[in-house]
Amino acid sequence: MLIITCPWCGPRAQTEFTCGGEGHIVRPDPDTASDAEWGDYLFMRENPKGVHYERWFHAHGCRRWFHVARSTVTHEVLAVYGITDPKPALDGDDA
């Protein structure tokens, strides 16, 4: 079982959380974005082998959103940080 440390509630089982998908995706400007840009925003996601940045929601706890940096190889949680915080620089991150 994956243990995720909620920034507000502490370590909890993965079953208390809902993954909200890839983190740090910037929404295009609705007034100027092309159909292709909207398509990329809605459907195209990274699928890296290594560090992946994800949004998580503590559905059965404090009900807050936050980011998790996780290794897709080992499932190790490398960092947990606020939803408005920038990505931390981590070993193995090519971004």
Describe this structure in words.
This protein is mainly beta. It has one domain: Folate-binding fold (2-Layer Sandwich). The chain is about 10% helix and about 35% strand. It is globular and about 40 Å long. The two termini are about 30 Å apart.
Give a concise summary:
By secondary structure, the chain is mostly beta strands.
Topology:
Layout: E1 3-6, E2 10-13, E3 18-22, H1 35-43, E4 51-57, E5 65-71, E6 77-82
Antiparallel strand pairs: 1-2, 3-4, 4-5, 5-6
Widest sheet: strand ordering: 3-4-5-6
CATH architecture: 2-Layer Sandwich
- The total number of structural domains is 1
Question: Low-confidence spans: pLDDT under 50, at least 5 residues?
Answer: none
Mean of all residue-level pLDDT scores: 93
The coarse overall form would be globular
User: Helical stretch count?
Assistant: 1
CATH topology: Folate-binding fold
Radius of gyration from CA coordinates: 14 Å
What is the N-to-C order of secondary-structure elements (H for helix, E for strand)? Answer: EEEHEEE
CATH homologous superfamily classification: Folate-binding superfamily
Distance from first to last alpha carbon: 28 Å
Q: Which class best fits the helix and strand makeup?
A: mainly beta
Feature tags:
95 residues; single chain; mainly beta; Folate-binding fold; two-stranded antiparallel sheet
